[in-house]
Amino acid sequence: MTVKTKFLNVAKDPTVILLFSILALPFGYFLSAIYLMWRGLARGGLLVLARQSSRPLQGVIVAVLVFASIHLAILGVHGGTPREYYVYLPVLLMPLMLAGVMTIPYVSLERVAIGASLAALAAGIIAIVHSILMPMSSIGWSNYGLSNVGRASGYIRNPVAFGNMVVFLATIILLWLIRPAKSLGSTNTFGPVPHLACLAFGLLAILLAGSKGPWLAIALVWPVVLLRWFQWSWPQTTRGAVILTTVLLAVAVVTATLIGKRVLPATAVVESYSGQRFYEFDSGEGSFGPRLAMWSFALHHLDSKTLLFGRNRVEYALFQHQEFEAGRAPGLIGGFRSLHNDALDFLVLKGVAGLLSAMVLLIALWAYFGRANRCLRSRGEFGVAPKAGLVIAASYVAMGLTGAMLDGQLVGTGLAILLAFLIRECEQTLRPDFA
Description:
By secondary structure, this protein is an all-alpha fold. It has two domains: 3-263 and 342-434, no CATH class; 265-333, no CATH class. It contains 19 helices and no strands. The protein starts with a helix and ends with a helix. The model has no long low-confidence stretch (mean pLDDT 78).
């Protein structure tokens, strides 16, 4: 098969197109979700899902529906904004997206990896244009320096969500690259080097997004992945790892100023916070100071009356302002849509009911992919799809330590699409074991 034929086959594959569109096109995640839901309704996907889904998958679907229904009901009681409804509607409709994925005639793990790689490549190119080339053209080549590097956000204008989504894509690429030689089979259309290059572009996009959460996930989760599952039985992987490490070091050196602006001030902020009362804290250095202030304020004002179902976001912001005016809160807490911590955001704004429903959904996903991974391991297979699901769930938790993951439509919709393809792979591989 010629290179041209390979590219033509990939270019018309629906799996590749749908995953590539998530970050590469304006509102691509929305268009991909609409297409999958249309397939789920028009092609009988719901019937296929009802008849052929395994019992563990049925548990995941119930957990998804319970999570979304509880959060939408709480928003209805509180009078949520349209933006908040748009965040949870894609989660509620995830089973319909999964039904659409089930009707795609041929879905292979390699095509999922290719789609993720192309999306990461597009994210890297968009980040370079957005963060480097556009500022450079506006202020002039001679006046441009590292301090002028902006935060990449792609078409969604949200650098945090942009970086978070790339982490999920990069997870699939990483696991595709480190799978052992015996699992390569005949499905290795392009070899490892293009995937490594796309992974490097994805990591560059994460770096230029300037968000702490993705690097926290990479620092906490990826070493465990490499130590637990990496095998050196594929000789090309050694060369690829060296190339990728060199690229990452070069990127880190070039963007050292950006890293310093976003990460290093956090240490000084923590030191200045210790020993102070939370409402006296007023260190605006970096973005970590406001996080400490918001978290302290939220924990000090947990109210038994709102503990079960939380409180309205706008009313909570007004309460913050009133406390600041009265001298009982630092000024740093104003101007943020979320509390920059997933668990605390759920607890304060959705109550114990919202937090528990989120925990149940994460546990259901972890249990599903964990069982699929054990089934494949018992067969002596590597199991990229279930491992990717486990790592994505762990990365979600890690990134949620410093940000509200569902603060915007991209992560909720894009993650639903990614998980739908991974679940399809697990189901078509393991359905006899899941019966």
